């Protein structure tokens, strides 16, 4: 049985904000948390991908908390070695095929030493390839023992033929390594698409694995991906940490890459994630940059961004929001398209939902996921609806604690 949801909601908020500040500026004092809040802190650390990092410096005196962080770091380190071996294989195979690929996000952040093996979880391997090479890369993955799990507007997802993800809290060394194949790097914010693919393609491409063209290109991708997650309220604290660490290595001229692509009239979408990084990691983002990006940002989104907290734009917010991200609309037409899409989803949207229910562990067996559109709307009108992804990780944390007793 779950505790009262209002208690869970407040515990998630309190522990999320405490962990965000702890990751940026570690303190010696142990939080005065209840037993439930320590369990919720484990759920938050797992959901936000920060357990391994916390284990390297956390001095909080709670034995179960310390053990959880240490175990998570061990699992991530083992998994990192598996991912490195897989990337080596992909590099060799791509060279043999004459195909250029760019490992994205987590893989790229480890290369310059921003993270050590075991610091940062990677749920999967993301690869950017040219459209003309996508079928050849898919064939390479099939030779490796992968099969397409599903395909959507952002990417194709391939999973190993053998192996199922264990139902555990956080990371596990035996979790299969999925591969996401991208031919475009784009986000819907919330309905209009921002595409920065051209900015991220290697120049000139060479067979095998290629780095991002520049540090600024990597930052552009991190910020656009974070923007998409802020819009959908699925941001993770590890993403803010990524941006803060990379920002500290950037020269003023590196930030000009945000304006290189001119995707959608300047990087208006970068302000919300940059504002959050500045809130939790003071002095990591130049004030002049925030002012420059703010000039491109629509007034409503600019105003809302100044007040965002991590809890509000992540799974730490317990409640589902019927029109999450509507403030990202830049015109009345976009507002109308967004609301229409929520009330009458397209066939493509419905297929994407079905794929999620079929492939995501946290959605399987959940009644909400199988309700009709009409029943969902009636339920929303009757009472607040908790997020399934949040409840999954909370239940996992409570169950882990129960088994430990």
Automatic annotation (TrEMBL):
Protein name, as recorded: Nucleotidyltransferase family protein
InterPro entries: NTP_transf_5
Phylogenetic classification of the source organism: Bacteria, Pseudomonadati, Pseudomonadota, Gammaproteobacteria, Lysobacterales
Pfam families: NTP_transf_5
């Amino acid at each position: 049985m779950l505790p009262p949801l209002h208690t869970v909601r407040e515990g998630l908020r309190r522990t999320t904000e405490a962990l965000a500040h702890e990751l940026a500026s570690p303190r010696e004092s142990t939080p005065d948390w209840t037993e439930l809040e320590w369990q919720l802190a484990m759920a938050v650390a797992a959901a936000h991908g920060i357990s391994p990092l916390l284990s390297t410096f956390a001095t909080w005196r709670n034995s179960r908390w310390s053990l959880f962080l240490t175990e998570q770091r061990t699992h991530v380190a083992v998994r990192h070695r598996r991912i490195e071996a897989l990337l080596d294989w992909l590099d060799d195979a791509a060279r043999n095929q004459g195909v250029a690929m760019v490992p994205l996000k987590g893989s790229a952040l480890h290369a310059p030493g921003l993270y050590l093996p075991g610091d940062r979880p990677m749920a999967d391997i993301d690869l950017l390839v040219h459209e003309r090479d996508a079928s050849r890369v898919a064939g390479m993955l099939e030779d490796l023992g992968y099969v397409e799990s599903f395909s959507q507007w952002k990417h194709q997802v391939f999973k190993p033929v053998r192996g199922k993800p264990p139902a555990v809290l956080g990371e596990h060394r035996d979790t299969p390594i999925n591969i996401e194949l991208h031919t475009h790097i784009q986000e819907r914010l919330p309905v209009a698409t921002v595409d920065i693919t051209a900015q991220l393609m290697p120049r000139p491409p060479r067979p095998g694995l290629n780095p991002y063209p520049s540090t600024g290109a990597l930052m552009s991708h991190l910020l656009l991906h974070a923007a998409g997650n802020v819009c959908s309220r699925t941001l993770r604290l590890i993403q803010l940490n990524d941006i803060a660490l990379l920002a500290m290595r950037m020269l003023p001229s590196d930030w000009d890459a945000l304006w290189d692509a001119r995707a959608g009239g300047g990087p208006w979408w970068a302000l919300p994630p940059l504002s959050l990084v500045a809130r939790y990691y003071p002095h990591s983002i130049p004030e002049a940059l925030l002012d420059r990006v703010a000039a491109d940002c629509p007034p409503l989104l600019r105003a809302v961004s100044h007040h965002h907290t991590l809890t509000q734009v992540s799974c730490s917010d317990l409640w589902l929001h019927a029109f999450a991200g509507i403030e990202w609309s830049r015109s009345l037409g976009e507002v109308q398209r967004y609301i229409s899409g929520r009330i009458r989803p397209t066939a493509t949207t419905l297929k994407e939902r079905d794929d999620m229910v079929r492939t995501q562990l946290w959605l399987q067996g959940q009644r909400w996921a199988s309700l009709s559109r009409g029943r969902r709307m009636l339920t929303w009108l009757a009472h607040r609806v908790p997020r399934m992804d949040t409840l999954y990780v909370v239940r996992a944390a409570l169950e882990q604690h129960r088994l430990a007793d």
